[in-house]
């Protein structure tokens, strides 16, 4: 195999290495951030990195969490203008815990919190059970909103919380428990 697999400058180099060594024996998903990667200086540079990963041989984009469907749509338009044509699977983080939701959105991903979600956080700020119920309903609505704008796939982050995620999937009508 060419080169040392541990020495890669970036994800594009890793994708190129995988393609060089293994051809199409693997499906390669690349990460995408609808609201810009938190460490990337500009949206244009972030999308240029996505184009580079596409050109290196990635098969599809798996997004980081994005609570704002409108931001997702604007991002997808910018991708098209930049020549990024890969299918996009949207990553959805279920809204189950107030502190985790705020932490994941703001400090770990740099994504916005839409007004509807901000209202849920405010209303159930000191009510964890009420927050989880309202958050699960919000997540189901978010799944439908994403489906309505046309996505290629859906990835629901479980974060080791399989029981409420299973309930969200049931509530959304995606799959019944008897099918598992």
Helix content: 40-55%
**What is the C-level CATH assignment?**
Alpha Beta
Number of discrete domains: 1
- Structural category is alpha/beta
Number-wise, the strands total 4
Content of β-strand: 5-15%
CATH topology annotation: TIM Barrel
Shape: elongated
Write the layout of secondary structure elements.
Blueprint: H1 11-22, E1 29-32, H2 43-56, E2 60-65, H3 69-81, E3 88-92, H4 98-108, H5 115-123, H6 128-149, E4 153-156, H7 162-172
Parallel strand pairs: 1-2, 2-3, 3-4
Short description:
The chain has 180 residues and is an alpha/beta fold. It is 51% helix and 11% strand. Strands 1-2-3-4 form a four-stranded parallel β-sheet, with helices on one face.
Question: Can you offer a commentary on this structure?
Answer:
The chain has a four-stranded parallel β-sheet, covered by helices on one side. The termini are far apart. By secondary structure, the chain is an alpha/beta fold. The model has no long low-confidence stretch (mean pLDDT 90). Strand 1, helix 2 and strand 2 form a beta-alpha-beta unit. The chain has seven helices and four strands; from the N terminus they run H-E-H-E-H-E-H-H-H-E-H. It has one domain: TIM Barrel, CATH 3.20.20.220.
